Amino acid sequence: MVEMIFISPFLFFLLFSLVPGDAISSNVTLLTLGDLWDTRGMTRTHLFPTKTSTVYPEFAAIPSNQGDGRMHLTRSALDKAIENVAEMNGVLIHSICSYRHLNVTFYTLNTMFGIGRSEVLIDANMTEMEKKMSEMTDRRIKVNFICVGANNDTYSAVWHHSPDFVWHFIVDSGPIREIIEKDRLQMTRGYYADCFQTYRNDNVSRAIIIWRKGFGKKYRIQYGTEVQEMLTDMQRTDLEPVQFASLPRLTQRKPFPRWILWHGDEFTWGNRTIPRDLSKMNHNWEALNSVIEHRMRSYDIPSISIHILRDNKMEYSASYGFADILQNIPVKTTHRYRIASVSKLITAMTIGELLADYEHIDLLTPVFGRNGILSDVCSPCHPFLLHVRIIHLLEHSSGAWPHTSKFEFDRMEQNQTEFLMRVVQKEFPILFPGGRHMYSNIGYILLGRIIEKVSGRSYEEYAMEKVLKPLGVNATIGKEGDPSEEVTYYSHDNANAYTSWSTRRLNSAAGWAMTAEDVTKVFHHLEEHKLRRFRWIITPSAVRWNYGRGVQLGNDGSLYHIGSLAGTEAIGYTWQNVQVAILTNIRGREQNEQTGWMEKLCRSIADGRFTR
Ligand SMILES: *[C@@H]1O[C@H](CO)[C@@H](O)[C@H](O)[C@H]1NC(C)=O
Ligand SMILES: *[C@@H]1O[C@H](CO)[C@@H](O)[C@H](O)[C@H]1NC(C)=O
Ligand SMILES: *[C@@H]1O[C@H](CO)[C@@H](O)[C@H](O)[C@H]1NC(C)=O
Ligand SMILES: *[C@@H]1O[C@H](CO)[C@@H](O)[C@H](O)[C@H]1NC(C)=O
Ligand SMILES: *[C@@H]1O[C@H](CO)[C@@H](O)[C@H](O)[C@H]1NC(C)=O
Ligand SMILES: *[C@@H]1O[C@H](CO)[C@@H](O)[C@H](O)[C@H]1NC(C)=O
Ligand SMILES: *[C@@H]1O[C@H](CO)[C@@H](O)[C@H](O)[C@H]1NC(C)=O
Ligand SMILES: *[C@@H]1O[C@H](CO)[C@@H](O)[C@H](O)[C@H]1NC(C)=O
């Protein structure tokens, strides 16, 4: 029996290379073993067992320009086919699933084009699977597909050693309903389902899923019982079927449950029209429009918001693109954006208000130790820390916790108090305070705690009341979720805007979300008071000529701050009578990919290049 169905994988490939590929169309066809018997597979088609019968196996055939599908491989034929793929250049294994036929386990194998090497684990139990999974994740090798075996509690998985950038991914399994619920959340966080397979265990219908980090990639996990109806429902969409999953029926009377995974394209502007909200425009500023649209197309920036004040009057206000790509929500000038480190100026201004309100503290008040404001954060403290004063935190010269150490980006589920206690007690300073500029988010998180400790209010409340509300600014921290008010964040790289950092943890360092107009109000306030109330803010620190306290100092007299964290690049800028804010809902492939041109653009605007 086993010998009879064995077919040399080599012969198999020869057979295939002679068959011309069909035109790819949006289609899923159910084919029986008999339909496929002669070729034992199809070119440019992926095959998935439908688990509808252990006597008459059936396969869902999905046209694929990625590669070929094969079926009815015994375990030894599968091993040979895997070896065969390993010897071919530019071909990887896409997926392996199994099914039972007449009490024997058989396998389907799909290939795909790609550079690198595939590694597989077949019919492993959960323990082995988890071990391998964490080993591969440590080696930064990405899992491509997981299928649950025909035999209960066995898994077959495929990994790709590939020179491509390793995109962030999440693997999960559980009852189908729970997985679908989690999927909605992951979708809003910029992940898409790239593998969705189902199985039944202990009479519970479960799914195993791999989400991959996308950039506004559209997809859908569609449930149904009749394939033809499912296809009809999707006819008007621009999605293509890529995968099929199914379950045996629970009782004779119930139909077979089936799922089709559909994918669309990743987001790109190409030469599509970029929507604009120019409602408040009062000049013909086509030159500036074209600069911004050019940047958006070159970097595939989903949206940009820009606001310009001249002589405290709105000169230009525009938002371009989509607040949310998947839902096609055009951005409005009233949308809030996270401003990342531009928040540091707000914290510095709030410290200014705090010192005015509470005369027993000043910029030289110690932070730690028995006489420090945050005496409870460490005890005993590292001896260097006893010399840290408020001003050191403001000018990034505490000598500890540089942002390059990334302590603030760990994934530990700790609230801010627990997080600070751990970092301050365990991560020792590098230098004596006041010695050198080492940009530190944690320094600014501590400033927020100082504000809370002294005022007895939350940082957000106190900053709103003392600084932002009087300016007519309505800002929030950690309220994202409503795409009609705040934009959705994207990121080209591995870092996820929603999971790689937390606006709540980084509240006083990088947490604020506000409109571009509101950012210009904050910078106008700075400009207005820079010679008196905020003189200390714009005074170069003792250790850095181009950084004051919460503000960057341009050599032409401009004052600005840039922000660049996963999901966001932003700038707030002032030069004499001109204030500019430029905000985006994406970070480039590298930190500060966008802020360079943003700063230059601010200078040109201040110079009057676009008004002449
Ligand atoms: C799907 O494929 C089947 C078989 O190849 C074909 O009969 C049918 O017309 C196709 N449907 C669509 C919508 O392309
Ligand atoms: C299926 O195979 C198992 C052993 O692999 C055997 O115990 C069982 O009797 C077989 N069942 C049938 C229906 O052949
Ligand atoms: C999984 O497989 C390994 C090796 O085959 C075995 O040692 C282990 O007991 C199995 N674990 C379970 C939970 O079946
Ligand atoms: C798999 O588990 C189901 C119950 O969850 C059981 O009825 C079935 O016999 C098992 N199959 C195998 C091959 O162990
Ligand atoms: C599994 O669930 C179905 C439907 O809920 C039920 O009819 C059946 O009795 C259950 N089987 C077992 C073994 O629990
Ligand atoms: C640009 O638009 C034209 C039609 O307006 C279209 O034919 C072409 O494919 C588009 N190119 C890109 C890269 O989207
Ligand atoms: C943070 O966690 C600690 C310990 O679990 C708890 O005592 C404290 O109340 C928490 N703080 C906040 C603000 O939730
Ligand atoms: C500020 O924004 C919040 C959230 O969008 C809104 O509920 C509130 O009404 C706004 N407050 C003012 C004063 O505009």
From TrEMBL:
Transmembrane segments: none annotated. It comes from the Eukaryota. Residues 1-25 form the signal peptide. Residues 289-598 form the Beta-lactamase-related domain. InterPro entries: AmpC-like, Beta-lactam-related, Beta-lactam/transpept-like. Keywords: Signal. Pfam families: Beta-lactamase (PF00144). PANTHER family: BETA-LACTAMASE-RELATED DOMAIN-CONTAINING PROTEIN, D-ALANYL-D-ALANINE-CARBOXYPEPTIDASE/ENDOPEPTIDASE AMPH. This is Beta-lactamase-related domain-containing protein.
